[in-house]
Each structure stands twice: as C-alpha cells, then as structure tokens.
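Inverse folding, one chain.
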C-alpha cells in the first residue's frame, strides 16, 4: 500500500470534506475559476492545506463535481425509463436545466473540456451514450426533429439558462424542437 492509499487521519478527512463542501459553494456561486484562497477561507483551512489535498484546481473541481455528474447520469437513466420518449426527453431537459441554473460551477463543468483521463471527462463520456439514446428514442417515435443532435444540447442549455424565467425559455425551445 502506498502512502497515498492510506486512510486519512480524522482531522485530514475533515479538512478534505470541508474543502470539497466549500468548493461546491464557491464554485457553484462564482464558477470554477473562483479564487482558491476563497475556497480555503470558506473551509477555514490554510491555502497550503488546500494544495496539500488538491495539488491542482482540476483535482478540486473533480472532487467537488463528480457527485453532481453522477446525479446527472441518474437523470438520464430516469429519462430513459419513461415509456413516452418525448416525456423522457422533456424530463431530461427540465431536470438538467434546473441543475445548471442552480449551480454555475456545474454549468461550467458540463460545457468545458477537461483532461481526457480525468474523472470528469470519463463521467461525461459515459453519460453521452445515454443522452444520445434519449434523443434517438424521441426521434424514432417521430416526436423530436430529425436534425437535432447531442451537440445541440449545449445551445439548448445556454439559451435556457440565459434567462431567470428558464421554464418559459425552455418551453419555447421545446416547441421548436418538436417534430411537426
């Protein structure tokens, strides 16, 4: 067993948990480029402690957002479980937009490209096939425009989250995506 695999001491574990929680708050409000010293202050630890636990910003972003990416994957699974493909597609978009509106950091994590070997990119890649299946099901049922692609989701999310009344905006977007 290497040193990195040893369980953390209780105080080190608390510091790590405090840093991840603080990162979620700070990144959620200000984005993933927020100052790391603000994260350390919020966690009530020294900046050296932050860098000891998370040598890079990407390490901290990954620790903070992998649980949310797992939540997003669960949303895609829920959407695939809908008998009506359009209802599943709408469910996916509504829940996903809500998650992004509530968390600026998550929006940035979804829209940025990270190291291909990172847990974030692996989680996003794993979810991509489910997202494409949601789209394919709705298209095969004749409910979603045939020219809609998974890459178009970035435009949908950007447009829907650009206004405080995101439900109204998403409703208009969905009207435009419906097959005629």
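Residues assigned per position:
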């Amino acid at each position: 067993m290497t040193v990195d695999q040893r369980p953390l001491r209780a105080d080190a574990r608390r510091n790590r948990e405090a840093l991840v929680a603080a990162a979620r708050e700070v990144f959620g409000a200000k984005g993933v480029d927020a100052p790391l010293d603000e994260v350390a202050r919020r966690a009530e630890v020294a900046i050296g402690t932050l860098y000891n636990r998370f040598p890079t910003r990407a390490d901290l972003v990954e620790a903070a957002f992998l649980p949310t990416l797992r939540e997003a994957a669960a949303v895609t699974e829920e959407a695939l479980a809908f008998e009506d493909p359009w209802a599943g597609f709408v469910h996916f978009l509504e829940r996903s937009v809500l998650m992004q509106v509530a968390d600026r950091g998550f929006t940035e994590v979804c829209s940025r490209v990270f190291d291909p070997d990172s847990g974030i990119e692996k989680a996003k890649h794993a979810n991509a096939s489910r997202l494409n299946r949601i789209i394919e099901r709705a298209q095969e049922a004749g409910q979603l425009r045939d020219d809609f692609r998974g890459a178009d989701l970035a435009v949908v999310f950007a447009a829907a989250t650009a206004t405080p009344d995101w439900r109204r905006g998403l409703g208009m977007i969905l009207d435009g995506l419906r097959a005629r």
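The mean pLDDT is 93. The CA atoms of residues 79 and 92 lie 6 Å apart.
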